[in-house]
User: Fold these one by one.
Assistant:
Number 1:
Amino acid sequence: MINQKDYFDRVHRWGILWNIGALLVLICIPVSVCIRWNVWPEANALLSIMPKLMALYWLTAIVEVITYVPLLGPGGAYLSFVTGNISNLKLPCGLKAMEQAKVRANTEEGEVITTIAIAVSSIVTTVVIAVGVLAFGPYLSVLTEGTLAPAFDYVLPALFGSLAAGYILKHWKIMITPLIAGVAFLYFVDPTMGAGTLMFITIVVAVITVLVLNKFNKL
Amino acid sequence: MNGDFKTSGFMYAVALIVIGFVVVQSVFFLVKSLKRARELGIAKETLRTTMISSAMFTVAPAISILATVIVLANALGIVLPWIRLSVIGNLAYETTAAQSALDFWGDTLNNSVTDPQKFATITWAMTLGSIAPLLLLPFLCKKLQKKVGETVNKSEKSQKFGDAISAAAFIGIVMAFVSREIYSVTTQTVTAENAAGQIEKVKMISGSAGFMSILVLICAIVFMLVLDIVCKKFKLTKLEPFAMPIAMFAAMGMAVLFTNVLPENLVSHGWFEVGAEYIKG
């Protein structure tokens, strides 16, 4: 069996190779559209659109990479950033898997468990979307307009509510301050702030809470 | 040319290649991790539970991602949103990127894009806007992992500290999302005509937390706590991996129930009025 350092080195090597492959595949999508219909993108439009999109999403990407990599581990991170839907699916899925398997982030066991969880989640997501589009395409409006629509409008509170409950019993002392800080920040400063940025504040408050509780032996 | 090109056989072929890539990558990492897990001596039952509960956990969010595909399909056909939401994409980004691009021509997601050049431009915008993490990861991932690993695994004392910090980080993340379900607003920039008849860009409110999001949040917490207690009290270890997906589905079911039985003014209550112009402060 190879040692931990060598295993992590391998994961990075695989991750970077798949990463480069994913970049090529992604770029091939617009390129193939342009070649197939013999058109060029409208330069004026791109010049107007891209600065706004890049200002928003490239900056968010820096924050997300710094925040998610230590939690997901390298395997989970390389896979999540290619397959997407991190904050609303892959991250909670990885966190839940680690909690259930009683392993912690930044260990080899944590890395392996999150990667398994995220890989399974990516495969299931891809299959659900593919089957939905190919087999049920004409009937899918039921998800956005029919009786079931409210269920999917509120999938995020249902997801994070059930995830938060797991921490209420074990860590209620740590939960209160970041929750108050998060809501207060949204209320008093910027209600449009996305969870990806807000989590910087709530993580810092949670860490300070742990340090204070630890100091007074109340953890 | 009409809009049929967006759902042509060619686009489906592109979709299958992209989706094939994602599945093969996922299977690759799954196989390698399972092999390593066995080498590390992680119990088979733990691995089985991780896979089953992750699959179960994924179904509901995946269906909601499918719902976004449908929203974007009006303008872009079903294939491009399918591709985009299977690789890198996420719910919030794809809609914003597509709408920002359509704004340039004063168009909206409600109208079908029939010009291949417009379609190509939107495809480029969606792609270029989203690739930043893939450019950053090869440079940052190893450094970040090494740094954090060294810090939390240095000694037993720092391991304990690392555990506490990890728990705090998890809780911080979850609380950020929970906070947004309690109080937040989602905006979208659109082009609109002002009183003087000039076209200008305004921020419109496209979503708001409110009564229903808080109620569904509370339902999910209660369901999960009850299931957790039941599993522990009756030693239902086999049910434990399914507790979270069940709680999630039950809370989503309650959202349907509440929408049908509660007064309209409660159901539609939000801290911000959806459809109104968003004015900061």
Number 2:
Amino acid sequence: MQGKQLPKWNEIPPGGAILEPGNSVKRPTGDWRTFRPIIDKEKCVRCLLCWVYCPDAAIKIIDEPYRTASGKEWKFSVEVDYTFCKGCGICVEECPVKAIEFVEEVK
Amino acid sequence: MSQSATSRPVYRSPFDLPREEYLAPGHSLCAGCVAGMIVRHLLKVAGPNTIVVTATGCVEVSTTLYPYTSWRIPWIHVAFENAASVASGIEAAIKVLQRKGVIDPNKRINVIALAGDGGTYDIGFQALSGLLERGHKVLYVLYDNEAYMNTGIQRSGGTPLFAWTTTTPVGKVWKGKWQQKKPIAEIVAAHRIPYVATANPAYFIDMVNKFRKGLEVDGPAFIHVIQPCPTGWRFDPRYSIKVAKLATETAMWINWEIENGEFRVTVPVPKRKHVKHYLRMQGRFRHLTDKEIEEIQRFIDREVEYINKRLGKEVIGPLVE
């Protein structure tokens, strides 16, 4: 809602209902982050544990084939959605092969 | 009404879970709050034909910051104490509308009540008891972060013994909370409802299958989920799942279910750890002396003995480490 005016009292739906489901996607929480998780696609074993444990649904499953340097074929990959990742580090801690690096955000 | 219900699959691995997200990202739960993960999986299991009622609590205030909402399904909040009553009313209304043919009688609409420990243990208890007694077909999910975290860590009926909160401070006389945690799931089980379970998000396969069973049963279902809270329990957000796992490994939290009167422990712990591993990870227990830790350990030993005796076999093993 940055820059935009909030609706006036007579424009609000009765009961203050929000008619657009899931519109919190307009409110990125990625700027909360002080540490950034980076997934190493070479090391990743695609167990999906980071996707399961992420409280913010900030891990995306990308349905694109990926070939590692050692010649292993994967049908999909996981990526961090930095628009919403709050940088809690649960994925870093829970990754069974330690394929997620946690680096400080520097601007 | 049960045709679509029986077709619900058993979840065996993360690959069986639906990819759709019904809780949109962008909610303002604290970083590392496991409630987000619990609600995500609850809605994944429930699917789009779901109405969620939440009591006031962390999930309610942080997912619906006006004019935004994180819910991609119908959602309602009325007051702190009446999540169960509102859910009963919605369920009764759906039944009437289906009888009158306004909505398709074969369509299965899940009604889920979601409340924290304050909204269940203390404030919403009589509404919950009424729902269970009337037998509405509602799944009641309690995410238990063991204090009123939303308003700033005040003690609730769910706060464990010796835990620090802002209303049970630590000083010369007070050593955190004086009382034990209320065994809410056993109180609910005493209502003789078809399904009662306790679940742990660290054992997510077990948790989602409990959500599935809770939505399938014909009658009220109650699921008590532990939810580690980095802000109120005072630990680094990255250890949220680790703390949850330790709760089960030390038998502070036992994952059991009662399905139609049959009691089962769904996550057996062959070798149990000392509770100090769990307590020492959290800042709210940092004031504990070894004597107080031993007191908690003795209490847990009694609980484990009670569970094993109830089952007639040893599912929670002896203390090692």
